Amino acid sequence: EMMEDFRKQAERFGTQIRFGYVSEVDFSSLPHKVIVDEIKTITADTVIIATGATAKWLGLPSEQKYNGFGVSACAVCDGFFFKGQDVAIVGAGDTAAEEAT
Q1: For 65, which DSSP code?
Q2: How many CB atoms lie within 10 A of CB 27?
Q3: What pLDDT sits at residue 101?
Q4: Are 47 and 32 in contact (CB under 8 A)?
Q5: What is the predicted pLDDT for the residue at 100?
Q6: Is 5 a catalytic residue?
Q7: CA 83, 87, 92 angle in degrees (round to 5)?
Q8: Nearest-angstrom CA–CA distance, 35 and 11
Q9: What integer is the mean pLDDT of 67-81?
Q10: How many of the other CB atoms lie within 10 Å of CB of 72?
Q11: Residue 94: active-site member
């Protein structure tokens, strides 16, 4: 439901939303070129890449218990709420270091 509200809001501001399999992109010049379903070329000054990534939880019972109450899976989304506070960030590879900056 929330995603549908986001879509409607974006469309009110003139955003054109397209669905399909992006098979190729060319960011070397403006406007950018996006090839959809290997046949259709779309050009745009701005391209938003939404991969549908999901959080990798540790599997602790307390993660779900405190999710939204101090535990978060998105530092970029929820970092504002913890500004100026000491926080611990857990991530795979260099993800934790990237999220901490």
Answers
A1: H
A2: 9
A3: 64
A4: yes
A5: 64
A6: no
A7: 120
A8: 22
A9: 80
A10: 19
A11: no
Q: What is the chain's Cα-based Rg?
A: 18
Quote the tokens at residue 64. Answer: 């779900």
Candidate list 45, 77, 86, 94, residue with the active-site label: 77
74 is catalytic: yes
- Tokens 């500004």, residue located: 83
Tokens of 87: 């926080």
- Name the one residue in this structure whose structure tokens are 């290997």: 38
Residue 72 DSSP SS3: coil
Residues 31-47: what's their mean pLDDT?
Answer: 92
The two tokens of residue 92 are: 């795979």
Buried b (16+ CB within 10 A) or exposed e, 34-68: bbeeeeeebeeeeeeeeeeeeeeeeeeeeeeeeee
Alpha helices in 13-60 (DSSP H): none
